[in-house]
Amino acid sequence: xxxxxxxxxxxxxxxxxxxxxxxxxxxxxxxxxxxxxxxxxxxxxxxxxxxxxxxxxxxxxxxxxxxxxxxxxxxxxxxxxxxxxxxxxxxxxxxxxxxxxxxxxxxxxxxxxxxxxxxxxxxxxxxxxxxxxxxxxxxxxxxxxxxxxxxxxxxxxxxxxxxxxxxxxxxxxxxxxxxxxxxxxxxxxxxxxxxxxxxxxxxxxxxxxxxxxxxxxxxxxxxxxxxxxxxxxxxxxxxxxxxxxxxxxxxxxxxxxxxx
Length: 260
Hints:
Blueprint: E1 19-20, H1 21-27, H2 33-41, E2 45-47, E3 50-51, E4 58-59, E5 66-68, E6 71-72, E7 81-86, H3 103-106, E8 115-117, E9 125-131, H4 134-141, E10 149-156, H5 161-169, E11 171-173, E12 176-178, E13 182-189, E14 192-199, H6 206-213, E15 220-226, E16 229-230, E17 239-241, H7 244-259
């Protein structure tokens, strides 16, 4: 009896005129070429969704989607990913015809054509991402992807447990109901409290409106994280590049949400 021939293995697309994969990995900060070769030999690298099992592959860094240990890495040297701690009073815009301070002023010396991913109102401080990667920006901003954002708000205190229950259950606003994913009181001192709010909504002034609706109008608001990217001790007005881990986690997050 004739047996069926073995099926051909599925291979990632190979660009014969491209760059050797280990060189691309090394240029992306994964270590030396020798270390990158070890990653390939250990089966930890995938190109366009297919694990790489042999040396010698050439890829086009402009189009190849490369994962290491399941996390997507940036192999394009023309893509920029930045985290900014936006100060209060600065507009979430790259320029302003009226001459008001903008986030564009804070990255003007970088020379890249950047745009902000989402926005913070002028009176809100904290984490804002900037990039020239339109695809990732679209996914992070689109409501269907629901990337969680964390805020610290200073409000009149004390804050009752009932306020937290209402926020988690949902509050009716002028443009429809809204609710938080998580809420907790971080600190209470005198007549003030600091509360942490986590939500994935992106409607204008959503945190301020929610807290005002439960009787705690915001006096100060700081965004402290977007998905896996955290503000930490980054000073106001400072800009830094996202780490390879942060960028990989952002890609992992939006890729996972696509599959749901």
